Amino acid sequence: MEFHLTTLTTSQNWIPFPKLKILDLSENDILGTNFVQLLSNNLYFLDLHGNSLRKLNLNQKGNKLFALNLDKNKFDNIRHYGYSKTLSMIGLKNLHYLSVSGNNIQIIESDAFQGNNELLFLNLSSNHIHYLHSTTFANLQYLETLDLSINQLEDVPEISDKTEISTLYVNNNNIKKITSHTFVHMPKLMKLLMRENQIDEVDVNAFAHLTLLEELDLSRNMLSSLSEGTRQAELQRLRKIDEDEESIHYKQNHRN
User: Keywords of this protein's UniProt record, alphabetized (predicted)?
Assistant: First the structure.
Protein backbone atom coordinates (compact mmCIF):
# COMPACT_ATOMS: atom_id res chain seq x y z
CA MET A 1 0.00 0.00 0.00
CA GLU A 2 1.36 3.42 -0.99
CA PHE A 3 0.81 6.63 0.94
CA HIS A 4 1.17 10.10 -0.53
CA LEU A 5 1.49 13.35 1.38
CA THR A 6 -1.30 15.75 0.38
CA THR A 7 -1.14 18.45 3.04
CA LEU A 8 1.27 19.79 5.63
CA THR A 9 -0.22 21.22 8.82
CA THR A 10 1.13 24.64 9.72
CA SER A 11 1.27 26.62 12.91
CA GLN A 12 1.52 30.38 12.85
CA ASN A 13 5.06 31.77 13.26
CA TRP A 14 6.56 28.29 13.72
CA ILE A 15 9.39 27.04 11.52
CA PRO A 16 10.35 23.45 12.45
CA PHE A 17 13.77 23.45 10.76
CA PRO A 18 15.05 27.05 10.67
CA LYS A 19 18.47 26.03 9.33
CA LEU A 20 17.22 23.61 6.68
CA LYS A 21 18.98 24.04 3.33
CA ILE A 22 17.83 21.01 1.32
CA LEU A 23 14.21 19.79 1.18
CA ASP A 24 12.80 16.99 -0.99
CA LEU A 25 9.00 16.68 -1.10
CA SER A 26 8.87 15.04 -4.52
CA GLU A 27 6.47 12.31 -5.67
CA ASN A 28 3.69 13.13 -3.24
CA ASP A 29 0.25 14.56 -3.99
CA ILE A 30 0.58 18.01 -2.47
CA LEU A 31 -2.23 20.33 -3.57
CA GLY A 32 -2.14 23.31 -1.23
CA THR A 33 0.66 25.75 -0.49
CA ASN A 34 0.32 26.18 3.27
CA PHE A 35 3.60 24.30 3.61
CA VAL A 36 5.44 27.40 2.37
CA GLN A 37 5.02 28.89 5.86
CA LEU A 38 7.08 26.00 7.24
CA LEU A 39 10.04 26.54 4.96
CA SER A 40 13.36 27.76 6.23
CA ASN A 41 14.53 31.18 5.10
CA ASN A 42 17.89 29.52 4.40
CA LEU A 43 16.55 27.00 1.88
CA TYR A 44 19.05 26.33 -0.93
CA PHE A 45 17.52 23.38 -2.81
CA LEU A 46 13.80 22.54 -3.07
CA ASP A 47 12.42 19.53 -4.96
CA LEU A 48 8.64 19.48 -5.45
CA HIS A 49 8.45 17.43 -8.63
CA GLY A 50 5.66 14.91 -9.04
CA ASN A 51 2.99 16.68 -7.00
CA SER A 52 -0.33 18.34 -7.90
CA LEU A 53 0.53 21.99 -7.42
CA ARG A 54 -1.38 24.57 -9.49
CA LYS A 55 -0.02 27.64 -7.74
CA LEU A 56 3.10 28.57 -5.80
CA ASN A 57 4.50 31.81 -4.40
CA LEU A 58 7.64 31.34 -2.32
CA ASN A 59 8.34 35.08 -2.06
CA GLN A 60 10.78 35.77 0.81
CA LYS A 61 11.16 32.04 1.51
CA GLY A 62 12.97 31.79 -1.80
CA ASN A 63 15.48 34.59 -1.32
CA LYS A 64 18.41 32.17 -0.97
CA LEU A 65 17.03 29.39 -3.15
CA PHE A 66 19.58 28.15 -5.69
CA ALA A 67 17.72 25.27 -7.37
CA LEU A 68 13.99 24.57 -7.75
CA ASN A 69 12.46 21.46 -9.34
CA LEU A 70 8.75 21.71 -10.18
CA ASP A 71 8.53 19.04 -12.88
CA LYS A 72 5.29 17.08 -13.28
CA ASN A 73 2.91 19.37 -11.45
CA LYS A 74 -0.18 21.18 -12.79
CA PHE A 75 0.94 24.76 -13.34
CA ASP A 76 -0.59 26.41 -16.41
CA ASN A 77 1.07 29.84 -16.34
CA ILE A 78 4.15 31.63 -15.02
CA ARG A 79 4.08 35.23 -13.82
CA HIS A 80 6.27 37.57 -11.83
CA TYR A 81 3.65 38.49 -9.25
CA GLY A 82 1.50 35.87 -7.57
CA TYR A 83 -2.16 35.44 -8.39
CA SER A 84 -4.48 32.50 -7.93
CA LYS A 85 -3.51 29.45 -9.94
CA THR A 86 -0.12 30.69 -11.05
CA LEU A 87 3.56 30.04 -10.53
CA SER A 88 5.01 33.28 -9.21
CA MET A 89 8.72 33.96 -9.65
CA ILE A 90 8.85 36.94 -7.30
CA GLY A 91 11.49 36.79 -4.59
CA LEU A 92 13.65 34.14 -6.29
CA LYS A 93 16.51 36.54 -6.87
CA ASN A 94 19.30 33.98 -6.30
CA LEU A 95 17.77 31.16 -8.36
CA HIS A 96 20.26 29.53 -10.75
CA TYR A 97 18.43 26.34 -11.78
CA LEU A 98 14.70 26.10 -12.53
CA SER A 99 12.89 23.12 -14.04
CA VAL A 100 9.14 23.24 -14.75
CA SER A 101 8.97 20.39 -17.26
CA GLY A 102 5.87 18.26 -17.74
CA ASN A 103 3.27 20.76 -16.56
CA ASN A 104 0.34 22.37 -18.41
CA ILE A 105 1.97 25.73 -19.05
CA GLN A 106 0.41 27.73 -21.87
CA ILE A 107 1.19 31.30 -20.84
CA ILE A 108 4.44 32.87 -19.66
CA GLU A 109 4.03 36.58 -18.96
CA SER A 110 6.58 38.90 -20.59
CA ASP A 111 7.88 40.00 -17.17
CA ALA A 112 7.78 36.55 -15.56
CA PHE A 113 11.55 36.34 -15.04
CA GLN A 114 12.31 40.03 -14.49
CA GLY A 115 13.64 39.40 -10.98
CA ASN A 116 15.53 36.18 -11.73
CA ASN A 117 18.70 37.64 -13.20
CA GLU A 118 20.93 34.83 -11.91
CA LEU A 119 19.29 31.98 -13.86
CA LEU A 120 21.80 29.70 -15.60
CA PHE A 121 19.52 26.78 -16.48
CA LEU A 122 15.83 26.95 -17.44
CA ASN A 123 13.80 23.88 -18.40
CA LEU A 124 10.31 24.55 -19.79
CA SER A 125 10.03 21.37 -21.84
CA SER A 126 6.92 19.18 -22.22
CA ASN A 127 4.34 21.92 -21.80
CA HIS A 128 1.82 23.64 -24.11
CA ILE A 129 3.69 26.85 -24.90
CA HIS A 130 2.83 28.23 -28.34
CA TYR A 131 4.11 31.80 -27.99
CA LEU A 132 6.83 33.64 -26.08
CA HIS A 133 7.06 37.43 -25.88
CA SER A 134 10.25 38.96 -27.25
CA THR A 135 11.19 40.29 -23.79
CA THR A 136 10.51 37.10 -21.81
CA PHE A 137 14.21 36.21 -21.46
CA ALA A 138 15.59 39.73 -22.02
CA ASN A 139 17.20 40.22 -18.61
CA LEU A 140 18.56 36.68 -18.14
CA GLN A 141 22.10 37.73 -18.95
CA TYR A 142 23.72 34.63 -17.41
CA LEU A 143 21.37 32.07 -18.97
CA GLU A 144 23.41 29.25 -20.53
CA THR A 145 20.87 26.47 -21.18
CA LEU A 146 17.26 26.86 -22.31
CA ASP A 147 15.08 23.81 -22.96
CA LEU A 148 11.81 24.42 -24.82
CA SER A 149 11.45 20.94 -26.27
CA ILE A 150 8.03 19.32 -26.73
CA ASN A 151 5.92 22.46 -26.88
CA GLN A 152 3.85 24.10 -29.62
CA LEU A 153 6.17 26.89 -30.74
CA GLU A 154 5.95 27.96 -34.38
CA ASP A 155 9.04 30.16 -34.19
CA VAL A 156 12.39 30.01 -32.43
CA PRO A 157 12.06 32.40 -29.45
CA GLU A 158 13.89 35.71 -29.44
CA ILE A 159 16.88 35.81 -27.11
CA SER A 160 18.75 38.95 -26.08
CA ASP A 161 22.31 39.18 -27.37
CA LYS A 162 23.29 40.05 -23.79
CA THR A 163 22.70 36.48 -22.63
CA GLU A 164 25.36 33.78 -22.35
CA ILE A 165 23.13 31.12 -23.92
CA SER A 166 25.22 28.28 -25.32
CA THR A 167 22.66 25.44 -25.45
CA LEU A 168 19.17 25.70 -26.93
CA TYR A 169 16.66 22.85 -27.21
CA VAL A 170 13.60 23.42 -29.39
CA ASN A 171 13.00 19.79 -30.38
CA ASN A 172 9.45 18.59 -31.05
CA ASN A 173 7.75 21.89 -31.79
CA ASN A 174 5.95 23.28 -34.86
CA ILE A 175 8.78 25.38 -36.29
CA LYS A 176 8.63 25.60 -40.09
CA LYS A 177 11.31 28.06 -41.23
CA ILE A 178 14.75 29.24 -40.14
CA THR A 179 15.34 32.80 -41.36
CA SER A 180 18.50 34.88 -41.66
CA HIS A 181 17.78 36.67 -38.37
CA THR A 182 16.57 33.71 -36.26
CA PHE A 183 19.87 33.32 -34.40
CA VAL A 184 21.39 36.75 -34.90
CA HIS A 185 21.24 37.49 -31.15
CA MET A 186 22.66 34.13 -30.05
CA PRO A 187 26.31 34.33 -31.14
CA LYS A 188 27.53 32.14 -28.27
CA LEU A 189 25.46 29.09 -29.19
CA MET A 190 27.49 25.88 -29.15
CA LYS A 191 24.67 23.34 -29.16
CA LEU A 192 21.43 23.76 -31.12
CA LEU A 193 18.87 20.94 -31.23
CA MET A 194 15.84 21.34 -33.51
CA ARG A 195 14.88 17.79 -34.41
CA GLU A 196 11.28 16.71 -35.04
CA ASN A 197 9.85 20.03 -36.13
CA GLN A 198 8.31 20.88 -39.51
CA ILE A 199 11.28 22.76 -40.92
CA ASP A 200 11.28 22.79 -44.71
CA GLU A 201 13.32 25.93 -45.36
CA VAL A 202 16.64 27.20 -44.00
CA ASP A 203 17.91 30.59 -45.16
CA VAL A 204 21.42 30.64 -46.62
CA ASN A 205 22.52 33.04 -43.85
CA ALA A 206 20.65 31.36 -41.01
CA PHE A 207 23.79 30.22 -39.19
CA ALA A 208 26.11 33.04 -40.24
CA HIS A 209 26.43 34.41 -36.71
CA LEU A 210 26.98 31.06 -35.00
CA THR A 211 30.75 30.93 -35.22
CA LEU A 212 31.05 28.87 -32.01
CA LEU A 213 28.48 26.24 -32.97
CA GLU A 214 29.69 22.66 -32.43
CA GLU A 215 26.50 20.62 -32.59
CA LEU A 216 23.44 21.10 -34.79
CA ASP A 217 20.55 18.65 -35.00
CA LEU A 218 17.96 19.12 -37.74
CA SER A 219 16.94 15.48 -37.95
CA ARG A 220 13.35 14.36 -38.57
CA ASN A 221 12.24 17.56 -40.24
CA MET A 222 10.99 18.14 -43.79
CA LEU A 223 14.28 19.20 -45.38
CA SER A 224 15.37 17.77 -48.69
CA SER A 225 18.58 19.78 -48.96
CA LEU A 226 20.45 22.87 -47.78
CA SER A 227 21.77 25.55 -50.11
CA GLU A 228 25.39 25.31 -51.19
CA GLY A 229 26.12 28.63 -49.50
CA THR A 230 24.87 27.36 -46.18
CA ARG A 231 26.94 24.20 -46.46
CA GLN A 232 30.24 25.77 -47.39
CA ALA A 233 30.22 29.10 -45.59
CA GLU A 234 28.25 28.83 -42.38
CA LEU A 235 28.77 25.14 -41.64
CA GLN A 236 32.41 24.66 -42.65
CA ARG A 237 33.42 24.16 -38.98
CA LEU A 238 31.01 21.23 -38.58
CA ARG A 239 33.06 18.21 -39.59
CA LYS A 240 30.40 15.53 -39.88
CA ILE A 241 27.54 15.92 -42.36
CA ASP A 242 24.95 13.17 -42.80
CA GLU A 243 21.92 13.40 -45.07
CA ASP A 244 19.05 11.10 -45.98
CA GLU A 245 15.55 11.52 -47.32
CA GLU A 246 14.12 12.52 -43.96
CA SER A 247 16.82 14.34 -42.05
CA ILE A 248 20.01 16.34 -41.98
CA HIS A 249 22.23 16.11 -38.90
CA TYR A 250 25.44 17.99 -38.26
CA LYS A 251 27.75 17.27 -35.37
CA GLN A 252 31.36 18.25 -34.84
CA ASN A 253 33.44 15.11 -34.48
CA HIS A 254 35.79 16.37 -31.80
CA ARG A 255 35.04 13.94 -28.99
CA ASN A 256 37.13 10.83 -28.31
Answer: Leucine-rich repeat, Repeat, Signal
